[in-house]
């Protein structure tokens, strides 16, 4: 455990157990710290705040995959066994998923409607269905075409370059100094 926690905040919690070589005691302390009621409350509050702000509008800015993964993580944190007050049912998870999809494309609206009809009580199936629909509606070529690419114009390596001036070394002919 020392190797896993040595350069993390967790090391401070088990440093005293290094001398006594009490791995079981170190494990208990880490478990209580990271899975104790105080830490669970922090994770739950963070998940609630993140869930309220989370939305998806298009693939070019924030992919559907990242959106659905972040939402799944929030539901996992809210579904902690020590936290029974904030549980979301499968139906509530699907509803939250659909409400967070702010894209106004007609095909997305249609897919959302079909998804609610077919997968309203299974959030994993709803995520998978919408993932396929988003990939169909917004293929990867769309994503790569919206990003600016650096383009290089033609390069002339023979003769003088096309720098400042009129072919006299880039400084113009000037008046000359004799």
Brief characterization of the structure:
The chain contains nine helices and no strands.
Q: Could you please describe the fold and organization of this structure?
A:
It is a single chain. The chain has 178 residues and is an all-alpha fold. The protein has a domain at 22-144. It is 59% helix and 0% strand. The chain contains 9 helices and no strands. The model has no long low-confidence stretch (mean pLDDT 79).
Question: Radius of gyration over alpha carbons?
Answer: 28 Å
- Annotation field: number of helices: 9
Report helical residue fraction.
Answer: 55-70%
Task: Note the gap between the termini.
Answer: 79 Å
* Residues in β-strands, percent: under 5%
Silhouette: elongated
Summarize the main sheet.
none
Name the helix and strand elements from N-terminus to C-terminus, one letter apiece: HHHHHHHHH
The class by helix and strand makeup works out as mainly alpha
Write the layout of secondary structure elements.
Layout: H1 2-5, H2 11-20, H3 23-35, H4 37-53, H5 64-78, H6 90-99, H7 106-119, H8 123-137, H9 140-146
Helix pairs in contact: 2-3, 3-4, 4-5, 7-8
